[in-house]
Design goal:
Length: 30
C-alpha cells in the first residue's frame, strides 16, 4: 500500500506536500 507510487502521490497532493509526490514520480519514472 505505502509502496504504491500512485498512493504516495495522492497522499502528497492531499497533504499539500510536494515531497511525497516527487518521490512517487521519480520512482515511477525510474
Amino acid at each position: 500500500y505505502w509502496n504504491d507510487p500512485e498512493v504516495l502521490q495522492k497522499l502528497g497532493q492531499a497533504m499539500g506536500l510536494g515531497a511525497a509526490g516527487e518521490a512517487a514520480t521519480s520512482a515511477e519514472l525510474s
